[in-house]
Amino acid sequence: MTAKDQAPPSAAAPIADGYPTEALGEGVTAGGYNQSRWAEDWTRYRHPKKRDDFLDRLKFIPFDADGDIYLTLSGELRLRVNQTTNPNLRETEAQRQDINRIVGGADLHLGKHVRVFGELAHGGLGGVNLGTPAATLKNDLVVQQSFVDVTGTVADVDVGVRYGRQTFADGPNLMVVPRDNNTIFFVYNGVRAWARSNKVRADIFDYYTTRLGVQGTGDDISDKGRRFSGVSTGIVLPKDWFGGSKIYVDPFVWRLRNDAAVWGRTTAREVRNFYGLHVWGDAGPVNLDWTVNYQGGDYNGRPIEAWLLLMAQTYRLGKDRAAPRIGVHVDYASGGGSYDGGKLRTSLAPFGNNIYYSYQLFATPTNLIAVAPNYTFTALGKLRISAEYQFSWRDTVRDAVYRANGSAFAGTQNVTSRKIADTARLQVVYPITPRLSITGRYEHLSAGPALTRAGYASSDFLAGWISFRF
After folding, report:
1. Three-class SS of residue 164?
2. How many helices and strands in the chain, by DSSP H and E?
3. Contact predicate 5/30, CB 8 Å
4. HSE on the CB side for 319, CA within 13 Å?
5. Burial 18-55 (b: 16+ CB within 10 A, else e)
């Protein structure tokens, strides 16, 4: 359960001797598939002999003799069931969610330099004790993505610009990710531009987040109250360093403006700046994913001074890529100032991977110290099993325990205990084919005194789903 799965990806429009495709900031591609379907490259199917069935034909539909103008269709059907005891960590009836995701996309390439991409998504929900579902979980129809991009090469540098509604994953997995755990992805509206040589790259972006309605496609709008902008860069380290390695160093500077940020009992305007360094990749049998991030800015006239340190590493117990891995992630997220004034020391991961600390969404990197040893192995040929045990504490007892959505567990700011919880997790993934997979997930959260003394309880989570993509 590392922060990044280093499976070999492919790019939508690679250039010869360009920046390594796995480090372009477009998410992880495995088996040809990516969360962001526009990041996939299916041009091999321009050759009829490489197509095995009808669905292969849908990945490359040419409109001219040279195949420079072509359409790629994509789709996904995911059927999922979640069962959670003591939802919201309160002793109450268990919650069952019966979830379906249906997504359809079209990627039209108009020559070598212009591309138009569109994607519709549906999220269905039924079950027991559902409460008020979020629009990312239950939504009849959403324009999930809709953009145009223009690319080219100038002096051996790959350049491009993309405008419209789009996913974004150019940063540490725990800070920015489309959030595949949701039924509807987390997407942005705005512009992203880039320049990439074979060793150095830089991406600049300016986005508003998307506020989803539930009445069809007409009420999904840009949220002018949350603006996310910045620069993400990348550097390829020489392969002969560390005795042979594949390491990337990605400095980033971001700015997040939130006109309705909530800390403690106050809702106010926050401008938060992120100054960070992300180092990740492989050095022999070691895979590492490290982030150091200082956060400054202003909240309602109060200065922000926060830190986020994320360190995940695994060691491969064998020469084969499928060999077992043993690892640990050690993370520090500062806290303080939400309830007692002065400097605001609460760190946050703006749009990160919510399930990393809790499948039940009961934890987030705010006022958190987490240590989690883990073990991943393959059985029966391709059954991938990951087990992890996480110990969690607060950075300071003068601040609350926080959920994945950034809200505090009410009353925990008044408890003097530091221990939040122990959490045991197990995940099993069986890829029947590259298109079809089955996933099972279990988590037990044993609430510590920081939660129980505020009236919260332990909880179990069980989920299973089947996903079909083409």
Report:
1. strand
2. 2, 21
3. yes
4. 0
5. bbbbbbbbbbbbeeebbbbbbbbbbbebeeeeebeeee
Q: Which residues pair with 84 in a beta bridge?
A: 95, 461
pLDDT (tens digit per residue) in 22-54: 999 999 998 899 999 999 999 999 988 888 898
- Count how many Cα atoms sit within 13 Å of the Cα of residue 281 in the half-sphere of its side chain: 23
pLDDT bucket at 6, cuts 50 / 70 / 90: very low
Closest CA to 339 of 297, 394, 293: 394
Radius of gyration of the chain (CA): 22
Q: What confidence tens digit (pLDDT) does each residue in 169-203 have?
A: 999 999 999 999 999 999 999 999 999 999 999 99
The answer on pLDDT for 8 being more than 80 is no
Task: Say if residues 241 and 274 touch (Cβ distance below 8 Å).
Answer: no
Round to whole Å and give the CA distance between 406 and 416: 21
The span from the CA of 87 to the CA of 455, in Å, is 13
DSSP 319-332: SSTTS-EEEEEEEE
What's the CA angle centered on 122, arms 95 and 145, to 5 degrees? 125
Residues 229-252, mean pLDDT to the nearest whole number: 94
Type of residue found at 200: V
Q: 307 and 294 in contact (C-beta within 8 Å)?
A: yes
Nearest to 306 by CA among 285, 336, 277: 336
Q: What is the pTM of this model?
A: 0.92
Asked if residue 71 lies in contact with residue 108, where contact means CB atoms within 8 angstroms, the answer is yes
Burial class of 312 by CB neighbour count within 10 A (0 to 12, 13 to 18, 19+): buried
- Where b means 16+ CB within 10 Å and e means fewer, 208-239 reads bbbebeeeeeeebebbeebbbbbebbbebbee
Q: What are phi and psi of 425, to 5 degrees?
A: -135, 145
Would you list the DSSP string of 408-427? B-TTGGG----EEEEEEEEE
Which residues does 461 contact at the CB level (< 8 Å), separation at least 6? 82, 83, 84, 85, 359, 360, 441, 442, 443, 444, 445
Share of the chain above pLDDT 70, in %: 96
Q: How high does pLDDT run on average in the chain? A: 94
- Cα(225)–Cα(210) distance, integer angstroms: 10
